[in-house]
Amino acid sequence: MVAVIKTGHSIRGMLNYNENKVKEGKAQCIGQHNYPLDADRLSYAIKLNLMQRQVQLNENVKRNTVHISLNFDPSEANLPKEKLLEIAETYMGKIGFGQQPYLIYQHHDAGHPHLHIATINVQATGKRISMNNIGKDKSEPARKEIEQRFNLVKAEDHKKIFYRPDPVSAKVQYGKAETKKAIESTLMYVINNYRYTSLPELNAVLKLYNITADRGTENSRLAKHNGLLYHILDAKGNPVGVPIKASRLYANPNLKRLETLFKRNETVRPDYKIHIKRAIDQAFFRSNIIMLPQLIKAIEKEGIDTVIRKNTDGLVYGITFVDHKNHCVFNGSSIGKEYSVKGLQEKCNANQIKTTAEGEKIAFSKQELIEILEENKSMLHFNELPKFLDLLMKAENDYEYVAKEFIKKRRLRRGL
Predict the structure, then answer these.
(1) For residue 206, what are the CA distances in angstroms to 31, 84, 153, 188, 325?
(2) Residue 207 forms beta bridges with which residues?
């Protein structure tokens, strides 16, 4: 079992997230604690008002909501409701929330069974429950004891990590669901679980699910006020529909909050570069990769998505790797010079010559190149195919090709 604890400042937002899942048929409120009625008889107003009245006893507590998820192994999908309730109540008691009002929701929108528990950290006496080091000091010991007591799969034994963000199992599609709900569902997981250090890196993950965070143009009103809008993207990557302000979304993922996360992630993600480096090195070692789409396809098997960054003229200027296994995002250049888009292209160019058994270097035949292009055409735009073919068929003495966007303009010397 894996327990995740998040705090916030909006009781209504926390409840809406879970209640919207119930309305969509993706969740069920299966239990309550310290409420006057059973869970199936509680109205939305009762759920909300009881918590709101209690947090008003201490208005100095700004982050007064506590949203907990208890995640179980996929093999435990058939745990009975009674056992889930007992696990939740045992856990809440052991972390110091046994006397708090809380609601227990069973969600069905992911590849593994999990519960969401909505509660507050202001007691009936008005005293605040400290959240400092609650994960290390209380949650972890409680988790281990519960795993033993209820014979659950231990978190330490479950090495496999789901490569796709949860609860997002598919790309957001405009018109398929209400825009705000669709964006909110994706953001809640990605923002809290991925390690990114800039808005472009966060967008590298979000764009995989047809969402982007937009600061506006440099001199726009949005940019001047440090605002942030979230858009749904169509199949071509263009914004569609009405954008949603960060302030309207649960947890208020505005620029100020994101910048705090950028700084925190800077300190925790460096050790995770090795997985991406190893995947790329092994891909080049195992196969004769001569174009980036081949590399992209190869490292996808290792749970790594690749986002190619282009300027307004369509020229490639960067590459970003999204490691779903370790939930980390890295620009290629931050991993190492040879992993930048220029460095990787140079490796591909170097591989465009084969060596015979006698050591003689020969170029790929035209038919071989066409077969490679056909194999990878799903990852290329139709109008890019001629460019790739021209590049790959260059004369042997021109294999040190560097795309023009990487060539620095030479300064003209003035005569003395």
Answers:
(1) 33, 32, 31, 11, 16
(2) none
- Strand (E) positions, 83-196? 102-107, 114-120
Inter-CA distances, 368 with 354, 355, 399, Å: 12, 15, 17
Contact indicator for 87, 72 with CB cutoff of 8 Å: no
How many residues belong to the chain? 416
Which pTM value belongs to this model?
Answer: 0.57
For residue 357, pLDDT over 90 is answered with: no
Q: 3-state DSSP call for residue 223? A: helix
Q: Which residue has the higher pLDDT, 409 or 352?
A: 352
Report how far apart, in Å, the C-alpha atoms of 405 and of each of 331, 379, 391 are.
18, 21, 15
User: What whole-number distance in Å separates Cα of residue 228 and Cα of residue 246?
Assistant: 6
User: Alpha-carbon distance 65 to 120, whole Å?
Assistant: 4
DSSP 186: H
Mean pLDDT of the chain: 81
Point out which residues pair with 177 in neighbouring strands.
174
Structure tokens at 217: 């143009």
Mapped onto helix, strand or coil, the DSSP state of residue 333 is helix
pLDDT per position as a tens digit, 232-244 = 888 788 888 888 8
Cβ atoms of 293 and 194 closer than 8 Å: no
